[in-house]
């Protein structure tokens, strides 16, 4: 039995070896690293899309003239709004008007009547009326030509805008005969003595104008205060002569002052006289 089984085993072993030798080349061909791989398909290139800007945060292209003009308009508007209080107080008729109206309220003795908001509002509208011709010249000669592109240089536009404002301040100083204030500030500024108004710098002219307005306002306030002061003196004298020293004179004089002010149409007189003190009116 062993002699018969031994040839069968040898035949089976030879068959297995032949099968393995037949399948080895194809297997090696499959795992051969030197065999070329098929070219990989390149990934599609996607251009990065810009992130959308948040609402209201887009910056205009300043290289274009129309966008530059719009941006400059915004800058000019913000600058004017930030400097408006200083310009309104220092270079217009607002100072004189508000001081005179405040002294009028003190002369009447009405404490906080009219309120500050009413006095400031009335002073602002009166300032608009007085400064109207000057601001129209600034708009026509400087602002509008600059926005339309007729004036390119900002310094040229500012120089043209300063001419009407300087003329207004010079006219008020001359009318009040306060030229000595200009020489005083020029001396403190270590400048040469000006021969003409063109030699006076704007930085010297503005404080001189402010000082001139303060002098004029207090002078007008004294003239308004005087008749009310006479009424207070008369009422105090009558009360003392009657032996009513414990009675505050203000309680008696206030109705008489209000009655006198209403009978003479005081608000119209004060407004007409105050507006008439300016050189441009």
Descriptive notes:
This protein is mainly alpha-helical and 281 residues long. It has a domain at 84-275. It has helices at residues 2-31, 65-90, 94-108, 116-147, 154-176, 179-188, 202-241, 249-263, 266-275. Helix 3 runs antiparallel to helix 4, helix 3 runs parallel beside helix 7 and helix 4 packs across helix 5 (154-176). It is elongated.
Kindly list the characteristics that best describe this protein:
281 residues; mainly alpha; 72% helix
SSE order: HHHHHHHHH
Indicate the structural class.
mainly alpha
* β-strand number: 0
- Helix amount: over 70%
Beta-strand residue fraction: under 5%
In round numbers, the mean pLDDT is 74
Write down the overall geometry.
elongated
Task: Give the uncertain stretches in residue-range form.
Answer: 1-5, 16-37
- Give a quick account of the main beta sheet: strands, pairing sense, barrel closure: none
Q: Specify the number of helices.
A: 9
The end-to-end span amounts to 147 Å
The Rg value, from CA coordinates, equals 46 Å
């Amino acid at each position: 039995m062993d002699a018969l089984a031994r040839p069968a085993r040898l035949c089976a072993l030879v068959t297995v070896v032949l099968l393995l030798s037949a399948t080895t080349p194809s297997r090696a061909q499959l795992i051969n690293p030197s065999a070329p791989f098929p070219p990989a398909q390149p990934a599609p290139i996607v251009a990065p899309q810009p992130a959308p800007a948040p609402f209201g945060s887009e910056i205009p292209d300043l290289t274009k003239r129309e966008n530059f003009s719009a941006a400059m308009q915004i800058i000019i508007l913000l600058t004017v709004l930030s400097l408006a209080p200083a310009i309104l107080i220092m270079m217009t008729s607002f100072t004189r008007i508000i001081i005179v109206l405040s002294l009028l309220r003190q002369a009447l003795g009405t404490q906080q009547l009219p309120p500050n908001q009413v006095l400031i509002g009335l002073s602002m509208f009166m300032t608009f009326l007085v400064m109207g011709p000057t601001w129209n010249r600034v708009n026509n000669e400087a602002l509008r030509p600059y926005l339309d592109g007729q004036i390119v240089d900002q310094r040229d536009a500012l120089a043209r805008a300063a001419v009407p404002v300087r003329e207004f301040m010079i006219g008020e100083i001359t009318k009040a005969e306060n030229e000595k204030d200009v020489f005083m500030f020029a001396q403190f500024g270590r400048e040469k003595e000006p021969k003409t108004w063109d030699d006076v710098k704007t930085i010297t002219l503005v404080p001189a104008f402010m000082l001139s307005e303060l002098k004029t306002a207090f002078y007008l306030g004294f003239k308004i205060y005087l008749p009310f002061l006479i009424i207070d003196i008369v009422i105090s004298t009558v009360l003392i002569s009657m032996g009513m020293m414990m009675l505050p004179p203000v309680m008696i004089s206030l109705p008489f002052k209000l009655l006198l002010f209403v009978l003479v149409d005081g608000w119209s007189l004060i407004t007409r006289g105050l507006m008439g003190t300016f050189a441009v009116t």
